[in-house]
Amino acid sequence: MEATPNSRTPAPDFWAAPIATHALAGDVRLPGSKSLTNRELVLAALADEPGRLHLPLYSRDSALMIDGLRALGTDIAPTGEVGPYGSDLLITPGPLRGDVRIDCGLAGTVMRFLPPLAALAVGDVVFDGDDGARRRPMRPVIDALRALDVAFPDDGGGSLPFTVRGTGAVHGGAIDMDASASSQFVSALLLSAPRFTNGLVLRHVGSRLPSIPHIDMTIAALRARGVTVDVPASGEWHVHPGPIRALDVTIEPDLSNAAPFAIAALVAGGRVRIRTWPTQTTQVGADLETLLPRWGARVTRDGDDLVIDGGDGVRGGAELPGVDLDLSRGGELAPAIVALCALASTPSTITGIGHLRGHETDRLAALAADINGLGGAVTELDDGLRIEPRPLHGGGWKAFDDHRMATAGAIVGLAVPGVVIDDIGSTGKTLPQFPELWAALVAATPAAGTARDR
């Protein structure tokens, strides 16, 4: 079984978001985490022996990572063990080689995690991607590698495209970095740092550091493979040089991709069960367990599962409160939460998400444009959004090539008839099965005697 093709079809992929006509009784099993899959793929490629990934994600982002690592000399092959969403993967490290081109698509993990590996290869490695990827910030990674004496023969102007000239080794040492725009800049250097001759001392010098749980995820993955990582102070990391141990790793379900499904219970009413929710995790999506009760959801654990009871839901007449919420820990949850706030009864202010302007699209501008286009009132702030609920009407919802924008539109469409998303295929970036899973969720009805007509 091959990885999902990494090409996008340019033709529009219009999708009428299904409206909820009854309370939900959903049972959702999600594919693996994109963040964990791509981190573990990189570490397995740098390991000292072959390793396996169980239940990896098959999506455009993971396919791009697999293709990039293969180009750099890693053998990645499906095994005979097949999970619900595809085969396990056997990763066999090889000597890193250059004189190749890597297509980053729109994947931040690929464009940021692989240049340090390219510096460890021998030869030039050219990086490019989608038009939208060329607008995503890259300068902190490029400047950090330059500070480590890595050459960029085409000057590496701070964004795609650029070329890394690998010499087979990176000396390492101490550097400063401003990672205010993305925690991925930090993870990019930490992942490869054990292979630097002298390891790495990395200090963040910016005014803020978003999405810290993603850095914690990177550190946990490194330590699990025997790498010594010290965190002597906030915003400072010491990675010691040494081998990266091979492992067989089971990838957790993607908890950030769980957000639309969990929030659906508050919009449509009823219950949604998310299968195999980990009890301990570094995924920021775990924050949903404590965030959703702020809108009145009852969130409980049932064995290995998480169950979200949304009561009557918006479609059943419930009035959801607005919130003032700092989402700097987990900005990737913001599009789904902002969609929910647009359906609430009182205003909300979501802050700590200014860095989302540099994601697949400017998510703050995109959310404001889409919700306001349906009659809403969303105002952009320097570091977030102000949402004043208004009656919404149907109409077009632009995905802006952004998977989380597409799923946010699906949330609004549960309560607002006639919402049409222009590119549901953009969800293939991290969850190709989204349209089918969402349709099944909306169609699922409670047992006889508990369903309510609307």
What does this structure look like?
It is a single chain. The protein is an alpha/beta fold and 454 residues long. The protein has two domains: 15-30 and 254-443, UDP-n-acetylglucosamine1-carboxyvinyl-transferase, Chain; 34-240, Alpha-beta prism (UDP-n-acetylglucosamine1-carboxyvinyl-transferase, Chain). It has twelve helices and 22 strands. It has helices spanning 34-46, 60-71, 108-120, 139-147, 184-192, 212-224, 259-268, 288-291, 334-341, 363-373, 403-415, 434-443, and strands at residues 15-16, 24-28, 51-54, 75-83, 86-92, 100-103, 122-128, 162-167, 173-177, 200-204, 229-233, 236-239, 248-250, 270-274, 298-302, 305-309, 324-326, 348-351, 377-380, 384-388, 395-397, 419-421. The strands form six sheets. It has a four-stranded mixed sheet with strand order 2-14-16-15. The chain has a four-stranded mixed sheet with strand order 4-5-3-13. A four-stranded mixed sheet has the order 9-10-12-11, covered by helices on one side. Helix 1 runs parallel beside helix 2 (60-71), helix 1 (34-46) runs parallel beside helix 3 and helix 1 packs parallel to helix 6 (212-224). The protein is globular. The protein starts with 14 loop residues before the first strand and ends in an 11-residue tail after the last helix.
